[in-house]
Amino acid sequence: MTTDPNTSPFPKGEKITNGYFTGNAFLTPLLARDKNNDFVLVNVTFEAGARTNWHTHPKGQVLLVTEGVGFYQEKGKPAQRIKTGDVVNIPELVEHWHGASATHKLVHIAITNYQGDNNVVWLSPVSDEEYTEVNKH
Ligand code: MN
Question: Over the stretch 55-65, which tens digit does the pLDDT of each residue have?
């Protein structure tokens, strides 16, 4: 909800326009990959209703939820409701999505590891039908 106070410690950043998100999502880069850290660190804000496409990470990903309520779902499994303070450890090559609930924003830090020069493989959008079903529970 755009009227919510921003309680996240990091800036909301710029709107994501890469075509792999549904709804309004924003990204702030926090730390680039460097010679010691083989990952990228970003802060992502999903407004209510916003979510990633289905996707995989070749070396996994960790999410730290800093604000709000949303979902994490692995393909073929029930969605998990996630909220402020939750840590999600996403295994390599597992198809999944993450994002806000239909009624609340979600803010998370994402730590995404690299394999070579790749850290994500984007797949199809989470359909409105899939998203509506998840929000019933
Ligand atoms: Mn992910």
Answer: 999 999 999 99
Q: How many angstroms separate the alpha carbon of residue 111 from the centre of ligand 1?
A: 9
pTM of this structure: 0.94
Residue 5 C-alpha to ligand 1 middle, in angstroms?
Answer: 26
Output the CA 58–ligand 1 centroid distance in Å. 10
| Cα 88 to Cα 100: distance, rounded to the nearest angstrom | 14
Structural domains in the chain, CATH included, are 14-135 (2.60.120.10)
